[in-house]
Design brief:
Ubiquitin-like (UB roll), five-stranded mixed β-sheet, 2 domains, DNA polymerase, domain 1, alpha+beta, 164 residues
């Protein structure tokens, strides 16, 4: 039996008909709603590639059953920008060349957005702690740290912003 559910996705009403209400939210976002920001990484909530915001908090969408978002608000990387105006984190990631292969970028940005919403001026240690659960196989962590600090307006003045 199909289950109908509605939720707010990136500021707009989303309606879904699903066969399995326990299906991961990630699958609904990618397969049913055609979003490409959240990525399938490990499927265990350990890599962070699938991170979205649920009711304003970063969650791993591979672990959240789609039924859990009924009547709630979900924000994805696609909804982080304001129309054609990128979110400061998105701009900072571009300026710092913080995406190498780009696979982890969704999770890094969404986790960092959660951090900056709670702590607008984190120091480097706080940024490192917030992103500790996000894996990057390319090794662009130094650029990611600079991008988050740039977006927070706390990039040290001595930084010359050259890619690591």
């Amino acid at each position: 039996m199909r289950t109908s559910l509605q939720f707010t996705l990136d500021g707009k009403l989303a309606k879904l008909e699903v066969d399995d209400p326990d299906m991961p939210l990630l699958y609904a976002l990618r397969d049913d709603l055609n979003l490409r920001g959240p990525r399938f990484g490990c499927g265990l909530g350990q890599c962070g590639a699938c991170t979205v915001h649920l009711e304003g908090a970063a969650v791993r969408s591979c672990l959240v059953p789609v039924s859990a978002v009924a009547g709630k608000t979900v924000l994805t990387l696609e909804g982080l920008a304001n129309g054609h105006t990128l979110h400061p984190l998105q701009t900072a990631f571009i300026e710092e060349q913080a995406a190498q292969c780009g696979y982890c970028t969704n999770g890094m940005i969404m986790q960092a957005a959660d951090l900056l919403a709670r702590n607008p001026h984190p120091d480097e240690t706080e940024v490192r702690q917030a992103l500790a659960g996000n894996l990057c196989r390319c090794g662009s962590h130094a650029r990611v740290l600079r991008a988050v600090q740039r977006a927070a307006g706390s990039l040290p003045a001595a930084s010359n912003s050259k890619p690591a």
